[in-house]
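Lab notebook, bench 4. Still working through the backlog of constructs that have no structural model yet. Next entry is a single chain of 142 residues. Request: give me the structure tokens for it.
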Amino acid sequence: MDTVLFPRVQRLAREFLRTQLAARGKDQPVSTKNPSKLPSQWIRLESEGGPRSLWEWQVMLNVYVYSTDEVIAEENSNLIHALMLDAPGVAIAIPEWPEPLSWIRQARHISGPRSLDPDVDLPNLEVYRIVTTWHVLPIPKG
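Model written out:
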């Protein structure tokens, strides 16, 4: 039986967004947890695994865009939404493989950007949520 391994999706999304945002002059943290010292804006990722096959893994990604300013939060969420859908074909570097590859075969819009009610723990921040699915290719055997 062949074991099929896939890239760690949150790491893949984090590296993709960091690179794409930096290329556009944006320098905001992208992580899977809220920072202990809160910056004026950041992005938090969550993933939910979906069906896998030998050829791909369909993963749902929830992206939360935070800012102290409503206009900036909305602008950032629109950019993040577009970037998440533009991921197919973009080579992304990850530690599990020696060179950047186009890991995302397909991206699909699920919902958002949607403004959420303020978080109880973070009441002075604007939060937007974007949900997409990525069809992720396996790590090549080699």
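Notes after review: Residues 9-136 form a domain with the STM4215-like fold (CATH 3.30.2000.30). The chain has one domain: 9-136. Flag for follow-up if needed.
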